[in-house]
From TrEMBL:
<keyword id="KW-0853">WD repeat</keyword>
<dbReference type="InterPro" id="IPR036322">
    <property type="entry name" value="WD40_repeat_dom_sf"/>
</dbReference>
<dbReference type="GO" id="GO:0016226">
    <property type="term" value="P:iron-sulfur cluster assembly"/>
</dbReference>
<feature type="repeat" description="WD">
    <location>
        <begin position="38"/>
        <end position="69"/>
    </location>
</feature>
<dbReference type="InterPro" id="IPR019775">
    <property type="entry name" value="WD40_repeat_CS"/>
</dbReference>
<dbReference type="InterPro" id="IPR015943">
    <property type="entry name" value="WD40/YVTN_repeat-like_dom_sf"/>
</dbReference>
<keyword id="KW-0677">Repeat</keyword>
<dbReference type="Pfam" id="PF00400">
    <property type="entry name" value="WD40"/>
</dbReference>
<feature type="repeat" description="WD">
    <location>
        <begin position="127"/>
        <end position="168"/>
    </location>
</feature>
<protein>
    <recommendedName>
        <fullName>Cytosolic iron-sulfur protein assembly protein CIAO1 homolog</fullName>
    </recommendedName>
</protein>
<dbReference type="GO" id="GO:0097361">
    <property type="term" value="C:cytosolic [4Fe-4S] assembly targeting complex"/>
</dbReference>
<feature type="repeat" description="WD">
    <location>
        <begin position="172"/>
        <end position="202"/>
    </location>
</feature>
<dbReference type="InterPro" id="IPR001680">
    <property type="entry name" value="WD40_rpt"/>
</dbReference>
<feature type="repeat" description="WD">
    <location>
        <begin position="83"/>
        <end position="115"/>
    </location>
</feature>
Length: 235
């Protein structure tokens, strides 16, 4: 199999001709082998997430449970089943950067915080405030913030205190439709949200509040992961 890669396209002065360097590369087919099938959930499985060290896998689903999987020899086994946190489908799970906490998002409009100590998990906190289904939770790389998004069109930023308390730092009304997903920048406390309103928002703390920022903001580098600089207003 071959593919053509177009690099460095340039428009001619008259705007009618494009000149580009074209590379032809051969792509080798790679067959993925199924090494394990994990069974146990009684309804749809919505999300899976590795812990930071890759030793545990968390899964969640329509059966309102979270399962923690680990490897024993050549086999993958269920280490724990977390059942007490939610009353409806669990849509998303995410590990904290330190690996000691697991956050969950549920259609019951709450987020759960699970603490891992000595191989055991307990529900440390239930975060309430969203008015509708919570779709995704995500930790910042620093571990100081947790973001959640919901069908209620909002993004909530939760701040983690030293005594394991979770306080709402901001409620952001940046979208006019369901907010489907949130993710954090890998090195900065910038959260990005995507929505059914066909937009992507960049959100950052500014003067003790969280605001929508644009790629033109001098405090925000649009050159993320080696991508070319963005010159389009994001709002």
């Amino acid at each position: 199999m071959f593919c053509c890669i177009v690099k460095y396209p340039q428009m001619s002065g008259n705007g009618k001709t494009v000149v580009a360097l074209i590379q032809v590369r051969r792509i080798m087919s790679i067959l993925a082998e199924n090494v394990a099938t994990l069974s146990g959930h009684e309804e749809q499985v919505w999300c899976v997430a590795w812990n930071p060290t890759g030793t545990l896998l968390a899964s969640c689903g329509g059966d309102k449970t979270i399962r923690i999987w680990g490897q024993e020899g050549e086999r993958w086994v269920c280490k724990s089943v977390l059942t007490d946190g939610h009353t409806r489908t669990i849509r998303s799970v995410a590990w904290s950067p330190c690996g000691n906490y697991l956050a969950s998002a549920s259609f019951d409009a709450t987020c759960g915080i699970w603490s891992r100590k000595g191989g055991e998990f307990e529900c440390l906190a239930t975060l309430e405030g969203h008015e509708n289904e919570v779709k995704t939770v995500a930790w910042s790389q620093s571990g100081n913030f947790l973001a959640s998004c919901s069908r209620d069109k909002t993004v909530w930023i939760w701040e983690v205190t030293d005594d394991e308390e979770y306080e709402c730092a901001s409620v952001i009304y940046a979208h006019n439709q369901d907010v489907k997903h949130v993710t954090w920048h890998p090195t900065q406390d910038i959260v990005v949200s995507s929505s059914y309103d066909d937009t992507i928002k960049f959100l950052k703390e500014d003067a003790d509040d969280w605001q929508t920022i644009s790629a033109r903001n001098p405090s925000f580098s649009a050159n993320i992961s080696g991508a070319p600089s963005v010159h389009t207003q994001i709002s």
